[in-house]
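Q: What does the assembly look like in three dimensions?
Context provided by user:
Components: four
Sequences:
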Amino acid sequence: MTGQTRLSWTDVRDTIRTRILNRTYAPGDKLPRDEDIAIELGCARITVHRAMQDLALTGLVERKRKGGTHVRTDPVTRATFDIPITRREVEQRGSKYGYQLISRTLQDAPASVLARFGLQQPTRMLHVKALHLADNRPYIFEDRWIDSSVSPEILDVDLTTESANEWLVHNKPYSRLDVRFYAINAKGESAQHLATPAGSALLVIERTTWIEQDPITTVQAYAAPGYQLAALN
Amino acid sequence: MTGQTRLSWTDVRDTIRTRILNRTYAPGDKLPRDEDIAIELGCARITVHRAMQDLALTGLVERKRKGGTHVRTDPVTRATFDIPITRREVEQRGSKYGYQLISRTLQDAPASVLARFGLQQPTRMLHVKALHLADNRPYIFEDRWIDSSVSPEILDVDLTTESANEWLVHNKPYSRLDVRFYAINAKGESAQHLATPAGSALLVIERTTWIEQDPITTVQAYAAPGYQLAALN
DNA sequence: AAGTGGTCTAGACCACCTT
DNA sequence: AGGTGGTCTAGACCACTTG
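A: Here is the predicted structure of the complete assembly.
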């Protein structure tokens, strides 16, 4: 016999993916049961399962108990993004990181902020505006609200030194996250602090986090013109 | 004894995640070996492994062979986005989908397009501009280049009826994908076709795909003002 | 009711990395 | 060199979902 090494689940995944690209298994087709594929390829069923799991995650196939595995007819483009701490992001670009606190006030959160958290009741929160710089040039302007009843310690943090971004990441792990992207025209503060003409198109990254049911923070990060966010891979 | 059911890997994941949020395992700490956790919780090592895998994917912990598992000091915010076929996206919003071909020409790809593919040689490509509508209102304007030597069949497709987006998704699976987001001010065609004043901020979703080493297509999708892209979960 | 994916166990060995 | 995560096998049982 040919003394080949054992199949790894990535081998199995690649084999099946190739067959899908091949049209051996065409869109909409039902694939053989995991067990049959295992027998055919000569590996354990769980190895096929692992491979399939990965293909399902990528959006190439769809699995249902009893229904079996099908090649998706409308493959979904699925992309994953890392949104690091801003300091880290700047430093990884090889730039010098800078930070400025713009304002810090305790006030009732407006309806739009309450809505992001899904809150009904008026709530007093810490409102922080800050600017992150790369090589002394504006990089990201952030407008953040922090629920100070959930994170009372934040009230004692010197935000002129340490950014709320960084403090929260290091001290307030979250259990739920909402992220969304959109574009907006610079105006007022965002234009001023990013040193760009009013009307410039800005990418906004809006993040809201909770710990269990409790709101932690919500932030709109306005990236300076030219900013791009690229997916992993 | 209490007749509890067996631990699932999600239970184990949740237990460990709670401990991390608890600071039982603080940022930077080394976690016990998988096997010790398995013994402590009373499950198989592989079950702990599965849980850890998930936590590592989410960016909460970092694993290294021999080095063990550590709680990340700078947890990364990681978000996954689905970018469906535009027709599907519109229909899932409950709107009526519409499509218009704007132009279709065979021409040499400009340097910017070649750069996206990482190509050096001048290449003749099919250049397609099209508009997707939701309830008869402009939704996404797409500016697309297709390598017609890799996908010659596209030359015979009636793009006035079927969008290139859809045809490609159904007929040209890709093996590599690049996705990036940025914001841009509407001008010229993008403003005109999206029926928005020049200068409006637009979210651009740029996607480039390859099959193995061969370029398939690259597209800049300009979303109408107000468009938001939300992460899964 | 029955088929198929989902997961757990126990044991073994491999592969990578740090010391 | 040795420790730790990574994965494979074989078998069993569970859970969902469809016919």
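Follow-up: Chain A has two domains: 9-71, 86-223.
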